[in-house]
Each structure stands twice: as C-alpha cells, then as structure tokens.
Amino acid sequence: MKKKTYIYRGFERFWHWNQALLILFLAFTGFEIHGSYSIIGFENVIRVHNMAAWALLVLIVFAIFWHFVTGEWRQYIPTTKLIKAEISYYITGIFKGAPHPTHKTIYNKFSPLQRIIYLGLKLLVIPVQVFTGLIYLFYVYPNNPVHVIGLDVIATIHSFGAYILLSFVIAHVYLVTTGSTPLSNLKAMITGWEIVEVDDEDGQKK
C-alpha cells in the first residue's frame, strides 16, 4: 500500500541542496576562469571558486560519514533488475503515460538506473574532480617545488568532469518533474515527506 512517509532526513536534504548549489556555483565561476565571460573578475573569481571547492570537499566528507553511520550507503548498491524496463520507460514509456517499472520505498529510494548513475558520480566523476582540482590548486604556481607535466591535460579533465556534473544537474532537474505530479519530487526533497510504497512491517516501524 501507499503511505505518506518521512523518507528524506534533515541532513540528507541539507547535503543534497547544498551540493547542487555548490556544483552550479563552481560551474559558473569555473567558466569565468576559463574566459567564457567576465563578471566577478579574474582574481576574485579564482578566490571564490577555491572557497566553494573547499566547502564542497568538507560537505563530501560529512556526507560520506553520514552515509556509513546511517547505512544509507546501501541505497547505492547497483542492480540490473528491471534496468531494461526502466530504460525503455524513459525512452518511450514516459511519453505514453506508462507506469514507472519500479516503486520507491524508504529502504529502496533509488531505481536501478539511478543507483548506477549516482554510484558512478560518487566513485568516479566527483573523485576525479577533487583530485584534478587539488593538483591544479597546489601545483600550478611557478614557485611550487613539485612540477606536474601536462597541466593542460589536468585542466581539460577537470573541465570535462565539470560538464558531466552540470549535465547531470540539468537532467536531474528535468527528471524531478516526472513524479506523480510535476512538483511532488521537489516537494519531497524540501519537506522530507513523500507518498511511497510500504508494507505492513514498514508501517509498524514508522
């Protein structure tokens, strides 16, 4: 049965929204650093970009700790069950009004496709961004005793990762509107409450 359930905890919502804002801000300042436009000014934009990067790194550390303490890391364990049906849903089914092949529960918040995408971001894209960003931050200066060959390659990888993260945020915003109503998923990430599938045992735990 379906029941209004407190599915997104306070820190989870805090982490989600601040991560999104920091990624967007880093993209905005990063493009200015690359010379796409000039709004803040080169010296100022480097300073605020670095500050935002450190803020994101601190947020990531706390998020990792929270995921392991609460056991929420299990939500990201990948599965191929129903993944073909989900891909088919997003390619054609969603435009025909077909029901979603998977159902969200408090212990299964992510669909198979979401699990793979989110895990890829957490284990590949974001670590690469952090690693290349730290290299560019500490080893770019001429007086630094450590020299990195091919720093332009590091910058290219960092920029490519930024495009991936920005594309993810844009796609994520679109998919937010594909819930039971256009604003139901957004409301859930603001209030924490969402109508999801529960069984009798889940209902007793609430």
Question: In words, what does this structure look like?
Answer:
This protein has a single domain (2-205), classed as Fumarate Reductase Cytochrome B subunit (Up-down Bundle), CATH 1.20.950. With 206 residues, the protein is mainly alpha-helical. The model is unreliable at 202-206 (pLDDT under 50). It is built from seven helices and two strands, in the order βααααααβα. Helix 1 (10-33) runs antiparallel to helix 2, helix 1 (10-33) crosses helix 5 and helix 4 (112-139) runs antiparallel to helix 5 (151-176). The protein is elongated and about 65 Å long.
Determine the number of helices (DSSP H or I, runs of at least 4 residues): 7
If classified by CATH, what would the architecture be?
Answer: Up-down Bundle
Number of domains: 1
Main-sheet strand order equals: 1-2
